[in-house]
Amino acid sequence: MNMLPRILQTWVLVFLVISPTLFAASSVSRVDSHWSARKRHMREKVREMFYHAYENYLSHAFPHDELKPLTKGFTDSLSELGNLKLQHLPQDYNGSALSLIESLSSLVILGNNTEFERAVLWLSENLTFDVDARINLFECNIRVLGGLVSAHILATDSAKRLVQGTYKNQLLTLAEDLGRRFLPAFNTRTGLPYAWINLKYGVMENETTETSTSGCGSLILEMGALSRLTGDPIYESVALRALRKLWSMRSSLNLVGTTLDVTTGQWIEYSSGIGAGVDSFYEYLFKAHILFGKEDFWRMFQSAYLAVQKYFRHGPCLQVFKHFGLVYKQVLVGDIAAANSSHREFFHVWQKFGVLPERYLLDRQMIHPTEKYYPLRPEFAESTFYLYQATKVYRILRLHYYSPNFSPHCNHMFSDPWYIEVGESIVDSLNSYTKVEGGFASVRDVTTMQLEDHQHSFFLAETCKYLYLLFDDSFLVDQNIVFTTEGHPLPVLSSWQERLPEAYIPANWTFVKTRSCHKHEQVALNSTLFCNFISSFNSMGVVPSYMSIIECKDAQANENILITQNANERRRPSAMTLQVCPATTLSPSDGGQQIESVCHIPDVGADHRCLNDEDCGVDSTNCRKRSCSMAGYCGLWLIS
């Protein structure tokens, strides 16, 4: 008689035990479905934006360089980029289809292989650089050379087969021809290139010797890639010489100026910063390290970043920001909390005006009086995309280590939906304030929303691209990619590496067991990769397939998952994995061994001897940069 009640009690108890899990799974599924639908909707809105801009360019401006959306005209702007005074404009230059070149990789990311093939064939048959046009080396490098090199790689990708049997390296031929025309600019005593060069006649008589830090230090990705593709080392060689010369000109504080003289190798403008004229210099130091594997690039970047953090950062943000250089660097080294704080500061300004002014004084909460314009720049969308990607891993780690009861669903990456909402705001603002019948117009004054008759090519190359990737990053699956400063994707290839960065070597990956998954499963955390490059792959356009590395594994099928390939012992989790920085305590769960510091960079010499500060690393106990003493030893000699 008591049997039925007991069975009923048992089933009630089982239901009470499993129901929270069932309801939680159902809740997560509903939330995930909601955001997936929302992202698909926004992806299509961005697609419409791109084609509205692209098709108006083809209708009213092609094959000239850029569209005038208000008058439905065109401008041959390749000779005007950076030429603020519009000096020495060519008489017979009819454009180089700049906006088409800039759109090539965006077409692939949007999945329009047919239009990509059509554009490639047109450029192959019609584009020439044998024109009497004085161009800015930096702008032509990042926009045209970068666009051609990237599109060539996409066109020759056998897995994608984007061009069906009609492509015979024509874009690479064009890129090499352009690269050859760049070379006379580097014929200076210092190796620093002239800012301006005539594509037909080389460096003109009485050409200005003034250039920017970015103009000398942001050439290595495109010209290095050209060397790797053609087998001719000259392009990478001249760019590398210029970069190293520029680095040798830094101050004792490891800071660089803004403008310099290429013939004397002296600074013209000593003020330093991370905005226009210098931002991509920092960006390319790190990206070059990832793309080519040179440790020199990493050491230069690390020194520069520490200097920027020490001398330019005040409170949660910079007093003056331009081009989101701060967010780039914060995400780059895994400082997600600080990057998020900076990003929210920028979003507050966006909400205040509807778009972003070119320059805003945060300490005074006012627009710079001479820089009220917004030329459809991509940096805010780009930073939003990077942070959204970075938080995929960051949030799951924080939830696990700070909430022992948190159990993420296997093979599911969490990310912060707030960035999706920011992306929606960007898209809505662009459509509300800048979309016109003939395309998308720049904003001359953000306080009045007066428009300017110019649709810059980077709107197609970057702004639309990063917004699309924010809502649909399927293009990045199973690919390791570095985006150039103009948004052109370059693959990370082992054949391009001087020495593969340690974080890429599977033998150096650390796998730590967690309690996040079910009984016979474990989560594999690539903590060495995470420690050295957390989010840096996603920041500034570096996106590897590894970012989905947090997934549940069957322990019985992968019994050796906790064993390194080089040693039959368990590797220790890094401080970044455990959210500790600096790490000075012992962890009982790790056998009483000291946890590796996330910020530690060893001295060059094992005996800690040094010739200068560059031979000293970063201290593991307090994350401070070590310096070289007068006696020639590395240590914490400076009082901060």
Automatic annotation (TrEMBL):
- UniProt-annotated location(s): Endoplasmic reticulum
Give the record's keywords alphabetically.
Endoplasmic reticulum, Glycoprotein, Glycosidase, Hydrolase, Signal
- Entry-linked PANTHER family: ER DEGRADATION-ENHANCING ALPHA-MANNOSIDASE-LIKE PROTEIN 1, ER DEGRADATION-ENHANCING ALPHA-MANNOSIDASE-LIKE PROTEIN 2
Q: What class of enzyme is it?
A: hydrolase
Q: What is this protein called?
A: alpha-1,2-Mannosidase
- Look up the EC number in the record and give it: 3.2.1.-
Signal peptide range: 1-24
Q: Which family does it belong to?
A: Belongs to the glycosyl hydrolase 47 family.
Q: Would the keyword Glycoprotein turn up in this protein's UniProt record?
A: yes
